[in-house]
Amino acid sequence: MIDSDVSTQGLPQLSSWARGIEEPALQRALAATTSGMISLAPGIPDSELFPLSDMAAAAAKVLATHPQALQYAVPCPPLKELICAYMAERGVKCTPDCILLTQGAQQALTLLAQLLLDPGRIVLEEELSYSGFQHAINAYKPEVVPVRTSVRNGVDLDALEQILKKTEGAAFMYVMADAHNPLGISLSLESRQRLAYLARKFQTPLIEDDPYGELFYTEERLQPVKALDDNWVYYIGSFSKVLCPSLRVGWIVAEPQHIRKLSIIKEGLDLNINTYSQWIVYEYLETGKLHSHIKRLRTTYCARRDAMDASLRSSALSCGRWVVPSSGIFFWIDFPSDINTTQLLSECLKSNKVAFIPSEACSRGKRTSGIRLNFSRCVPSEAATGIARIGDALQQMLNRSGLAIGAY
Ligand SMILES: Cc1ncc(COP(=O)(O)O)c(C=O)c1O
């Protein structure tokens, strides 16, 4: 019998985790872009640099020669072979059964959280870190213990060791040894060796997230931490920043028994396929053009980095402090603690048509006086205009508050 009095109002009750989800005010503000807005906020590649005709040829070849790539199928075996060859060049010995192909580094983080994290356990994260990492772990309501980060040298390993001594049984620690987001720095060899040593000594797995590792502006680059320890480091790579993010192709390197478990977990997310994209990436790599494409990205982004450095020096933002990034796609600028960069952003969005990421978003709300600026996406003249606009807003904010900021 259907009771006509039953109310049609109301919504189903959500899980306690989902009840806690709120769209961050910052994300809402950044999404509301207006015409003429210059955004130095997102961490994305320049779409003008995508290798369009080569991607089109690779996609056409897949459809002509591997139409089964559109079917439910096993993840692209020859792509795993190529990734193993690439990892070997970087000093990591692995076989295809050590590789899980993922939908980008973000899904790799989600999968590793499912593999390693139980509700309420401790996770160690640098105090300045990638904000998307939170989405991968928040469902487990972990206790996130922040580890001090130096804007010059990266994760503070003395602080990390002290924390590891005090906190028994952390589920894992999360680091970016190369091209840190948001700091744009890469760790020294000593730091990598000590990280591998600490992971082993305290039997705490390390998740090494490396989506920007190919974007370095130095003569040479060091091996990932994964090359220094097989068992305790889970390595994450991605084609998002060097090819195209929307293909959603990344990978995890781990021990085969854990890869098998991860592949079963992945079935729960997407039936463990994303094969069409994987085959496109494979066919593109087979042309041998990735190397010269990455070289072009490095040259272009390095010139944009230098141009942004010059723009910063001649702007009102020169009252802040920064290290010219040796890798990645971001500048990190620290201002005196009186400057609240979330307020600055709100001013910039309202009146100055320019956006950036304030430190609040990279520090779980704990830091309030830094900003992250992207230099890969805009041509230098546009970035310079953006910086001048932020500088105007900063100057107005200082004038209103009566603060006088000299060299910091
Ligand atoms: C540090 C870091 N990890 C992971 C990701 C996600 O990358 P992907 O597009 O490969 O999922 C990003 C994206 O910006 C990132 O900055």
Q: Which regions have little confidence, pLDDT < 50, spanning 5+ residues?
A: none
> Could you tell me the number of beta strands?
15
Quaternary state reads single chain
Strand content: 5-15%
Cofactors, ions and other ligands in the entry:
pyridoxal-5'-phosphate
**Number of discrete helical segments:** 13
Biggest sheet overview: 7 strands, mixed
Mean pLDDT over the residues: 94
Protein described:
The chain is α/β, with parallel strands linked by helices. The protein is built from 13 helices and 15 strands. The protein has helices at 16-19, 25-31, 52-65, 77-89, 104-116, 132-137, 157-166, 189-201, 256-270, 275-286, 290-313, 341-352, 380-401, and strands at residues 38-39, 99-102, 122-126, 143-147, 149-150, 154-155, 172-175, 206-209, 233-238, 250-253, 321-322, 330-334, 354-355, 357-358, 370-374. A seven-stranded mixed β-sheet has the order 2-10-9-8-7-3-4, sandwiched between helices. The protein has a four-stranded antiparallel β-sheet with strand order 11-12-15-14, with helices on one face. Strands 1-13 form a two-stranded parallel sheet. It is globular. The model has no long low-confidence stretch (mean pLDDT 94). Pyridoxal-5'-phosphate binds next to helix 5.
